[in-house]
Amino acid sequence: LRRELYGQRSERTRRLIEQLELELEELVTSATEDQLAAAAAASAAYRSGGVDQVITVVPTDRIYLCCGATDMRRGINSLARMVQQVLALNPHTGAIFCFRGRKGHIIKILAHDDQGFCLFTKRLTDGCFAWPTTRDQVAVSLAKGSR
After folding, report:
1. pLDDT, position 147
2. Which DSSP letter does residue 20 get?
């Protein structure tokens, strides 16, 4: 009785897994086709000059390394608030603010252009970022004339 019961269940499970694999394959295929079509349309629009750049990085000579550990769960709003309250700087001036996590393998870069904020994240698979050490949350300026 047990063999018949387990045999039926395993057969049912096998068919269900095969069905799910087929559905997953169809989803991946349709998503890939949609992505290729969208990329081709965006490329054609960009070549024709009909689309402005979506993300711009404003060149600046004001780069601040925020020393100390930063919680990498923070987003744009809380990092901008941290720049205002803790560092006493204005995040809307076009300067670039760099934050490093406690373990040192993730940095977040906050920048503001004419359109709004951009938040970039970089995570290293091996090693960690070299960073000034201090226990307090202070900003080190990397401006050309700040040496």
Report:
1. 42
2. H
